[in-house]
Specification:
Elements: E1 2-10, E2 17-28, E3 34-42, E4 49-58, E5 63-72, E6 81-93, H1 95-102, E7 112-125, E8 135-145, E9 148-157, E10 162-170, E11 177-184, E12 195-206, E13 209-221, E14 224-227, E15 230-237, E16 242-249
Antiparallel strand pairs: 1-2, 2-3, 3-4, 4-5, 5-6, 6-7, 7-8, 8-9, 9-10, 10-11, 11-12, 12-13, 13-14, 13-15, 15-16
């Protein structure tokens, strides 16, 4: 059956309103083994579509697919960030795996495959102006159970930040395995200390053990030229305590004093 409704989001402090229209369709076969759910959210004024989603399943084919698309060229001014935001999500996998996920049971079939991508243009984050930039992200991961997500890749990029994440994320975080590579080609926008240069590195976390290795190039803090700095952090993480060993070295730093 189709439906149509209007949703009003109102800022209680400024009385600003954001009007949304919603329309949807739900179809379920008598045997309850096949279904279709569609939902669309739009602007009643401009008729722009903000959200378009479909969920289709067939028990006979042992398949459920979900597709979601989101786009906003103007965000409500009372939100903590502004910009033009768009994203898409596709999820597919066996009916039996979807059923096991919602019932918190072990998977007996293939995992659910999730693909995501999106962007944010002319982003303005009121509380964190350093994040003001154009951003892009993409991700591909497997939901192997209600307690485990296997990240094949998660990429986050802007003009000044590149991040790549891979690994397995478990509900018991201490059993997770994650690797994160990052680079900042220009440090100056992210510091109020007259810091310039570039930074790249890699973080690893595995079964309570963590490490961070990084290297800078042409690093300069105001009048001090640190140039190439190599750093390493190794440690353990537990609910009761965290321990870490930090080492830093540089072979070409301009030391402001001399040994006699």
């Amino acid at each position: 059956f189709p439906s149509h409704d209007i949703l009003i989001i109102k800022n209680s402090q400024t009385a600003e309103e954001f009007l949304l229209g919603m329309t949807g369709k739900l179809k379920i076969e008598k045997n309850k083994n096949d279904f279709l759910l569609a939902l669309q959210i739009f602007s009643p004024d401009s008729h722009q579509t903000y959200f378009d989603g479909d969920l289709v399943g067939s028990k006979a084919l042992d398949k459920v697919e979900a597709s979601f698309h989101f786009h906003l060229d103007t965000l409500p001014s009372f939100l903590p960030f502004q910009g033009e935001v768009s994203s898409s999500i596709q999820i597919e996998g066996p009916w039996t795996s979807w059923s096991a996920l919602f019932q918190d049971l072990p998977f007996t079939e293939k995992p659910l495959h999730v693909r995501m991508e999106g962007s944010s243009v002319q982003t303005r984050v009121h509380a964190f102006p350093l994040f003001d930039s154009d951003w892009k992200f993409s991700s591909s991961f497997m939901i192997s159970s209600a307690e485990q997500i296997d990240i094949q890749k998660l990429i986050l990029k802007s003009r000044g930040v590149h991040v790549l994440v891979k690994g397995s994320l478990l509900s018991q975080i201490e059993n997770s395995r994650l690797t994160t590579s990052f680079s900042l080609p220009d440090l100056s926008p992210y510091s109020s200390l007259f810091l310039t240069g570039s930074l790249k590195g890699k973080c690893r976390y595995e079964l309570g053990q963590f490490s961070l290795a990084f290297k800078t190039e042409k690093l300069q803090l105001e009048h001090f030229a640190a140039n190439t700095v190599v750093g390493k952090v190794e440690g353990t993480l537990s609910p009761s305590q965290t321990t870490a060993l930090v080492t830093l070295s540089s072979e070409d730093a301009s030391i402001p004093f001399k040994n006699h």
